[in-house]
Amino acid sequence: MKDTTQLCDWLEVFDQALSKQDVSAVQSLFADDCYWRDLLAFTWNIKTMEGRPEIVAMLSETLAHTTPRGWHATGQAEIAGNNASSWIAFETATGRCKGRITLVDGKCHTLMTALEDLHGHEEPRGQTRSKGLTHRADRQRRTWSELRSEETRRIGYEDQPYVLIVGGGQGGIALSARLRQLGVPALIVEKNARAGDSWRNRYRSLVLHDPVWYDHLPYLEFPQNWPVFTPKDKLGDWLEAYAKIFELEIWQSTSCDKASFDDQTGTWTVEVTREGEPVTLHPKQLVFATGAYGPPREIDLPGVQDFAGTLIHSSAYQSGEAFAGKTCAVIGAASSAHDVCVDLWEAGANVTMLQRSPSVVVRSETLMELGFEIYSEDAVAQGITVDVADMLSASVPYALFPDQQRALYQEIRERDAAFYDRLGAAGFAFDFGEDDSGLMMKALRTASGYYIDVGASELIANGEIKVVSGADVVALTPDGLQLGDGQTVPADVVIACTGYQSMNEIVAGIVSPEVATAIGPCWGLGSGVKGDPGPWQGELRNMWKPTVAENLWFHGGNLALSRFYSRFLALQLKARMEGIETPVYGRPDPVQSGL
Amino acid sequence: MKDTTQLCDWLEVFDQALSKQDVSAVQSLFADDCYWRDLLAFTWNIKTMEGRPEIVAMLSETLAHTTPRGWHATGQAEIAGNNASSWIAFETATGRCKGRITLVDGKCHTLMTALEDLHGHEEPRGQTRSKGLTHRADRQRRTWSELRSEETRRIGYEDQPYVLIVGGGQGGIALSARLRQLGVPALIVEKNARAGDSWRNRYRSLVLHDPVWYDHLPYLEFPQNWPVFTPKDKLGDWLEAYAKIFELEIWQSTSCDKASFDDQTGTWTVEVTREGEPVTLHPKQLVFATGAYGPPREIDLPGVQDFAGTLIHSSAYQSGEAFAGKTCAVIGAASSAHDVCVDLWEAGANVTMLQRSPSVVVRSETLMELGFEIYSEDAVAQGITVDVADMLSASVPYALFPDQQRALYQEIRERDAAFYDRLGAAGFAFDFGEDDSGLMMKALRTASGYYIDVGASELIANGEIKVVSGADVVALTPDGLQLGDGQTVPADVVIACTGYQSMNEIVAGIVSPEVATAIGPCWGLGSGVKGDPGPWQGELRNMWKPTVAENLWFHGGNLALSRFYSRFLALQLKARMEGIETPVYGRPDPVQSGL
Known about the structure:
The structure is a homodimer.
Chain A: H1 2-19, H2 23-27, E1 30-39, E2 46-50, H3 52-66, E3 69-73, E4 78-80, E5 83-91, E6 95-104, E7 107-118, H4 144-154, E8 163-166, H5 170-181, E9 186-189, H6 197-200, H7 212-215, H8 232-245, E10 250-251, E11 254-262, E12 267-274, E13 277-281, E14 285-288, E15 310-313, E16 327-331, H9 335-346, E17 350-355, E18 360-363, H10 364-371, H11 377-381, H12 386-394, H13 401-415, H14 417-425, H15 438-445, E19 450-453, H16 456-461, E20 466-469, E21 473-477, E22 480-483, E23 488-490, E24 493-496, H17 504-510, H18 513-519, E25 552-554, H19 559-577
Parallel strand pairs in A: 1-7, 8-9, 8-14, 9-10, 14-25, 15-24, 16-17, 16-24, 17-20, 18-19
Antiparallel strand pairs in A: 1-2, 3-5, 4-5, 5-6, 6-7, 11-12, 12-13, 21-22, 22-23
């Protein structure tokens, strides 16, 4: 209770200093080691200010137009040692905001502020949900189904979407659902024939590696009897049902071919091909939601032409059925490489994994228990809904992740020592990242190089799947692969699980290489490890926030990230549609050359 | 707190008396005016015991095998005057049970007991949900989609469903979802082409008259942004998505033609026609879920052959579009008659309602405010989830409904006096039922004769829809209708909103008239009012519980009743499939003749 009072006092002083625009008074409320993560509330950006000088610089530029007020704690402070944390709420000139704060010895260590709703444009839900069709006799009555049919018929032809979303996977679907609630006309173009096909079309044995509590989409949670790990086709069906339930406008079997932006009119001209017919669209905003990844990184080695067997990229791999009895080499040692190896082994193939560099591997059971604490049935029972868990996750600045994660991986390594010993003895090279921070950091930094073990590791440990680690594949031969050390690996089939290029390669193809280069890569924190060169960003590059290119956005990530960040991208788009001022603090500079 | 103690004391004494099978000690715990409503826990029936003698009789027959134990209050007692109420829980030999009790002056006035789960057959959900597909390499791996395809291909041919459900509206769908969670193989046969068509095929302007909070299906609630009143086609889409999400097996475009039961083998032989092909099915259990109603009650009057205009039953009415400028007579004055009148008026027809007897009419807004208190956003905010609200509703014995409802309708009549004055002045005959107990009692007793005003009453009050009340239609003439008082009503179009026959008429057609007669009518409480002859039943006749006919069941009702009672019907079917003893207390005797 004392600490709740302390927190309330802090917030009151903070509130007063902000309302007086007294930045130096604000500054004195923060600890030396301090972080302020802002999701739109002050910066109209997704940005973490690290240390007092960055906080001061941000406030000096944003405080006058943000006019934050009414800071208060919502609920009791949570105490841990010298730390006192609390959920908070406040308002700005444009909206209602929430956040979370942690004080250490009475000074702010971390603050997270997030825009929740725009004043006057709140999402209708609960008490404010629509009544639906009018209960009144009306000779001009248009039924729901007539209105829906007309909307679907007109969009893209008579009516232009305000937002065009390229890609109808979980990213496009979650964003589009958010936009619809906010009254922003949106259209998805998706190359596959059915909503959910981005999952259905993956390899036969794919089952989500993340648990159900982490995977909910906005507005409609998976039911309580949904399995913990969702099979890909079941997820596909869910996405399809979801798109129907939320009345999303999706053009399936549609490719996005070309897009150019007119600075004068602030409008895109986008050429798409819908079921073979060219259509030109004129949205104001263009969102690339083509997955966390760009195009497949195809294998490009001497001898590819001469290879007599089958060579495919993992993105095109469907099933091992045709490869029973064949000798198969799988290049790579991350998630898809592991899954493909298992699938081939299950089909009766003779499988060798060619591991180029060490991978982070964690047993699924261990990770569920230790790494998904706040996304679990226990968490739900304690009142930690998925929304609360998301805000908790978002309240930790990326700069503090590695320390947290190192502690987790220390525990994991001890608990599963026997498992790691067996993996190592089988010749599999594993590590926990350059700085021992483990799987999630790999995912954030490079989106590659990790595997949540759902069965492959046992086959590797017992020799059913052979491993060549440190494999430097230099060429293909007519009957296999040539490694740098002179070894040859015979293969009837080569599956390149070699990953994907950056999302902005898709922009290069559709908009222009110049724009793509100026935007620079997506994803990665600038941590300075291999595959994620600095400088340090403090946030994921170019994701869900303004980029160098006007009216061009990236949306992506797994189900959890798509769920959470779709809200903030939708708010940014809504504000722009409504002509609300959205001064962006810290917009990136154009990148002069690729990293 | 004192009252909580009193309740706990009562439960302890009750528990001891039951465990000693001391029925006379039990009896002394009940007030003179007492009711015990049991949903399967003691009776394997849905039955209300009224007064001490009925309670004693029930216990004398059921206590020995039920062996209830561990009675306790869950949560604090709720106090109102001399009354103390509480949620309770206990166990029996076969399952875990919940309930609700109200003491008056320390003695039990009402007790409701309900089976929740069968020991060893609990529904997997939350902590016990399935993990989904095994995370383990497996050369015999069958994917979810392969297993689903095979299940769908085999059922009805290689594999027989344990339960065959006739009708795929909300009733069949909700029941089938429950059965699937319990691992009971079920198949729905449905005459329409798509799941949800039972709603889509109704008249154009139909929007649910009940609010969203009352309409949830099991397991998956409508999202928070769902409109209060669902348009019919949107509900159709929801049901279709729901059936897919819950992996239900439905044969669409399938009629159920003939069914006979073999007492020796305990198996039905059911002839269906699936997309034109005859198929014979052999389920153990047959459920009629064809709606709360039986076949349409078609108009059968002298002169039908000579009528030169269009004559249709409301069930076949789609839209007034073709009737612009026509003179239309609508026979009936309940919900569909009102909706059809509005639809015709909206289309520009000249409309007269022929009211045969007084209707109960309530303004939607008033009913939402006063009659749906526990199914509302406010209720949700107070923690009254739909499951809690359902149990609350179920805890009131039907015998006590009329008094409760009379009080409500007294308030409604006062509040909307001006509305009723205008309706009356326009010649519309309204009442509040024979005993002034209003709309819900009409619904329970006769499933007819009421209208929640969503627009028609204003058109009646201002004369846009003409009304002839007390209209006794005796014949059709070539150009209209002949009334008993000699009046003639000209009509190009006659819509017979004359209601439906009892559900068991469907049994007469599919099984046999003899079986249908033995079962007697469905629905109705035996209240003794017109359309619901006695003797008093205390429960709805033949619904969701054992009937005279072995292995033949009725399931039906609006979305709310389908949601709640599907649980109890599913538990009865599951217990029988598992060979659990289900001694039915109070199974009805065969009806010798139709009522």
